[in-house]
Amino acid sequence: MEAHGLMADRALLGRTSTAERVAEILRGRIAQGCFPPGARLAEEEITEALGVSRNTLREAFRLLTQERLLVHELNRGVFVRVPDVADVKDLFRVRRYVECSALRAVPQGSEGPAGLAAIAAAVRQGQLVLAAQDLQALGTADIEFHEAISDLTGSARIAELMRGALAELRLVFYVMDNPRWFHEPYLVRNEEILDALASGHGEYAAELLCKYLEDAEQQLLAAYGSAHTGKRAEHLK
Amino acid sequence: MEAHGLMADRALLGRTSTAERVAEILRGRIAQGCFPPGARLAEEEITEALGVSRNTLREAFRLLTQERLLVHELNRGVFVRVPDVADVKDLFRVRRYVECSALRAVPQGSEGPAGLAAIAAAVRQGQLVLAAQDLQALGTADIEFHEAISDLTGSARIAELMRGALAELRLVFYVMDNPRWFHEPYLVRNEEILDALASGHGEYAAELLCKYLEDAEQQLLAAYGSAHTGKRAEHLK
DNA sequence: GCATATTTGTCCGTATGTATA
DNA sequence: CTATACATACGGACAAATATG
Known about the structure:
The structure is a homodimer of 237-residue chains.
Chain A: H1 18-32, E1 40-41, H2 43-50, H3 54-66, E2 70-73, E3 77-80, H4 85-104, H5 113-131, H6 135-151, H7 156-173, H8 179-198, H9 202-227, H10 233-236
Antiparallel strand pairs in A: 1-3, 2-3
Helix pairs in contact in A: 1-3, 4-6, 4-7, 4-9, 5-6, 5-8, 6-7, 6-8, 8-9
Chain B binds a DNA duplex (21 and 21 nucleotides) through helix 3.
């Protein structure tokens, strides 16, 4: 028992709204993979570990369910979402719509150097992380790169949509056995896109990204095909 | 007291999950304007009227808060969102991104007649409603038209985003003193867009819609400017 | 500025219904 | 089919914050 180390988080528990703080903690644990896709989040275990009441925890569950990180099955409890093939396709359809449009609009958009700086920072971060051999952080860096692209739209609402979509994407990454092998080629393509963007070729950058997304989708869908047999018994406990 | 007629909805209360049913009821009441923007939703009053416990009602509040229909102020309660100028701008920026892209992609997209039928139905509905002088339903018909356009993207995720955005738009409509005068010109433009789409001119339809959205945004922002002084004391009670 | 009443935030205990072993 | 475990929903309690006079 106590395989996820929630006890250590109890110290963080003492500032704003309890339910949101609990949600924040669980979000982090899910991103880290302490609760992998398909895992069930038992009410009693977590209330005990965090020292909050069931009502409060359930409010946190609602928040995360709305973010699509958890799925709620009536009278059965909440589970970490296991994205299926349709989810992956939808995810990439959204990304093509939003991210590519964002790049195309960048010459006309008012977001000049401010947005580019965030993208450049994400690229640098990816290179650092790769050198440091921190495989878990590779996904994070990639996601931050795409969040920065989405922010070019200048819409808080779209930014939120993409934050959610990319968080869900992290669950998809979970099917990849070797994160490094998967992420490494995309890091250099991230840099190419940044360069195209920095030199004012937004249309070309969008084209690069579009191909990039199609490749990534194909690769993930292929991984799904081969992973569908195993990978499950451990999560269902 | 009891100015919103919630008692009548008690009969509908008996199927799936209580919190969601409560949320559905409140959603409807907000759309109808029984709870106008800025109105506070008191816990005790509603628990009494609907016959549900406070915990259950609070869960329903969470759902609607996540949908941006309600805003939650710590230790003060929940209120129907009052969209500000920034909200309106963001709302229309999203609409231009999503709806116009959806129209542009329609010739290549696999959604042929299926999606068009839904759009045509919404246009017809708008004409019926106009004839029937049902001013409240005018906004609904217009919203359904744009939902149908968003569905052309074929992404469940984007469809959900737009459902939420358009529900919030209804709150914006609330500042218009005369719904008919506001909506009527757009009904004919809806029809023009449908015609362009039906004859395969997706690019032209997108152009029409883009202008349409800019006009509507300007008109609503102008209404906001003049309404900012009055319109408030009644809601804050 | 102060005291009071109201309302929310949080937690608990329990009864009922549902799914799974 | 029974038993167990769990989620749902209710009602009550008290502290804390807010609104009211």
